[in-house]
Amino acid sequence: MKRFHVHLHVNDLSRSIGSYSRLFDATRTRVESDYAEWMLQDPPLNFAISTRGAQPGIDHLGIQTDDAAELGALKARAEAGNLVLFDEGKTTCCYARSEKHWINDPQGIAWEHFRTLDNIPAFREDIPAEPASALMRTGRAVGSPRTGQARPGGGDDGFDLLLLRRIMSDKTYSVLFLCTGNPARSILAEALTNHLGAPRFKAWSAGSFPKWQVNPFALSTLAEWHIPQYGLRSKSWDEFAAPGAPPLDS
Predict the structure, then answer these.
(1) pTM for this structure?
(2) Which pLDDT tens digit goes with each residue over 20-59?
(3) Is the dihedral of CA 194, 197, 199, 205 positive or negative?
(4) Hey, what's the torsion of the CAs at 114, 27, 45, 169, to 10 degrees?
(5) Which residues of 212-245 are buried (b: 16+ CB within 10 A; e: fewer)?
(6) Burial, 95: exposed, middle or buried (Cβ in 10 Å; 0-12, 13-18, 19+)?
(7) Is 40 exposed, middle or buried (0-12, 13-18, 19+ CB in 10 A)?
(8) Which domains does the chain have, with CATH numbers?
């Protein structure tokens, strides 16, 4: 059996538990200090919420399977469709031990295909893995958003970030890319980071003397790479010093 999976970030766990329990007319299956989960039968849905994100919204979507054959079929389908895939294998997350792989969709939303193996008492167990610098030197095959084809060597077009996302903390990092006119390069950096780094990275861009118009070549380049362009605009960095501006990490 397969079921759809949704994981949301929420601000108020207790209030959200009450709201979703009434919405589903069902009691949550598991609740922790920072996490709650519902396993619904009609429709088949694994719905989870947590307070571990920087802002409310979708953390990731996915499909949960009950056996290894179903998970293997999902992986084969993704590979046959030339989708860029990160095979995480057996790991721990969300108070469970599981086997999974990840895909990023054209909107930059992460999708996981996974099979739950067991429950664990912590959100994530410490994994005796290599440091990030060593992982980035392994020369693993990675994919390009332009072609979806795997290519050898580091410096991938999405899954270095996806890999780092899984071995870093669950914090969402807010990043601001600055330049002079904010018409092209910083716009590309904003779009690429939001597309490839979601949900662990949220990016903006701005300029000291903005052009107020995005370079058409930048937009056409993003369209060629099938990267979303909505919300992109040339703007002043003064916006990010004003009251109500998003908090930044870098």
Answers:
(1) 0.55
(2) 999 999 999 999 999 999 999 999 999 999 987 656 888 7
(3) negative
(4) -40
(5) eebbeebbebbeebebeeeebebbebeeeeeeee
(6) buried
(7) middle
(8) 1-169 (3.10.180.10), 173-241 (3.40.50.2300)
